[in-house]
Design a protein that fits this description.
By secondary structure, the protein is α+β, with helices and mostly antiparallel strands. Helices cover about 45% and strands about 15% of the residues. Strands 2-1-3-4 form a four-stranded mixed β-sheet, covered by helices on one side. A hairpin with a 4-residue loop joins strand 3 (about 60) and strand 4 (about 65-70).
Length: about 140
């Protein structure tokens, strides 16, 4: 695998924080971070369900592989030098429950941060602004 594209919700504070964290890590596989639902995402991946990519992290490999939910987080960690061993463990039967619980907890926190009624918005007009890193 030569590159991965991470589609993340640019309107979610947790997602933006994790985007900045990923960019600070040493990458063994380059990560392109693209706002989910944006014109760029729709142009790059016309066959994806872009509404679904706004609800759950989605990672697309350079050969068309699509990873969602826990698998998407695991492949993101796999792309990082310092976290590849953890990704290998999370992909095992022993580690998969931890990956699922982590993703579920992040989803609950994300939902609480965003509040009710925000899932129907879209950035299909290309105006998904990405806030700068904190500080």
């Amino acid at each position: 695998m030569g590159r991965l594209t991470v589609l993340y919700d640019a309107d979610c504070p947790l997602c933006v924080h994790l985007r900045h964290w990923l960019l600070r890590q040493r990458q063994l596989v380059p990560l392109d971070l693209v706002p989910a639902g944006s014109q760029q995402a729709r142009r790059l991946f016309p066959a994806l369900d872009h509404t679904a990519t706004l609800r759950e992290i989605t990672v697309v490999g350079d050969r068309g592989q699509v990873y969602r939910e826990a698998s998407a987080w695991i492949v993101c960690l796999w792309a990082l030098a310092e976290h590849r061993p953890k990704a290998h463990w999370l992909a095992t039967p022993a580690g998969q429950p931890f990956a699922r619980v982590t993703v579920l907890a992040a989803a609950k926190w994300r939902e609480a941060l965003k509040g009710p009624g925000t899932d129907d918005r879209s950035c299909g007009d290309g105006h998904c602004e990405v806030p700068g890193p904190p500080g």
